[in-house]
UniProtKB/TrEMBL annotation:
InterPro entries: Trp_biosyn_TM_oprn/chp
Organism in which the protein naturally occurs: Lentzea fradiae
Pfam family membership, one: Trp_oprn_chp
Keyword hit for Membrane: yes
Protein name in the entry: Tryptophan-associated transmembrane protein (Trp_oprn_chp)
Keywords assigned: Membrane, Transmembrane, Transmembrane helix
Region Disordered: start-end pairs: 99-119
Length: 119
C-alpha cells in the first residue's frame, strides 16, 4: 500500500494500480503462481526505481522488497478460503452449515446436523 502511495505521488498511476492489484492477487493466488508474481514485482520495482523521481525510487524499493519476500515465502502463505480452516470434529453447528453448503436439508431426519428436539 505504501508503494502505491509513492507511485501515485510520483505521477505514475499505472504502477500505483499495479501495486494495489498485486495485493489482491497475493490473496487469491497460491504456490508457484505467488512466486511468479513475486518475481514480476521484483522486475517492476527495479524498473520503477530507475525512473529518477525520489517517490518512484521509494515505491520501487518497497515493491522489490515485497516481491523478494513473496518469491521466497509465497508458497508457505495460506490461501484464501474456508477449506484451510480448522474446526472441531463434533460441532453440530458446523455440520449443519456444511450440510447447507452441500445442498442438503440439515433439519431432515438422518442428517448429521439434525437437531435433537423439534419445536
Amino acid at each position: 500500500m505504501g508503494a502505491a502511495g509513492a507511485f501515485w505521488g510520483a505521477g505514475s498511476v499505472p504502477l500505483a494500480l499495479l501495486s494495489l492489484a498485486s495485493v489482491a492477487a497475493v490473496v487469491a493466488l497460491s504456490g508457484v503462481a505467488r512466486r511468479v508474481l513475486g518475481a514480476l514485482l521484483v522486475v517492476v520495482g527495479v524498473a520503477a526505481a530507475f525512473s529518477g523521481h525520489w517517490l518512484s525510487v521509494t515505491g520501487g524499493a518497497l515493491v522489490v522488497g515485497s516481491g523478494v519476500l513473496l518469491a521466497l515465502l509465497g508458497a508457505r502463505m495460506p490461501k484464501i478460503g474456508v477449506g484451510g480452516q480448522k474446526t472441531r470434529a463434533d460441532d453440530p453447528e458446523t455440520d449443519m452449515w456444511r450440510a447447507l453448503e452441500r445442498g442438503d436439508d440439515p433439519t431432515a431426519d438422518g442428517n448429521p446436523g439434525t437437531p435433537s428436539s423439534n419445536v
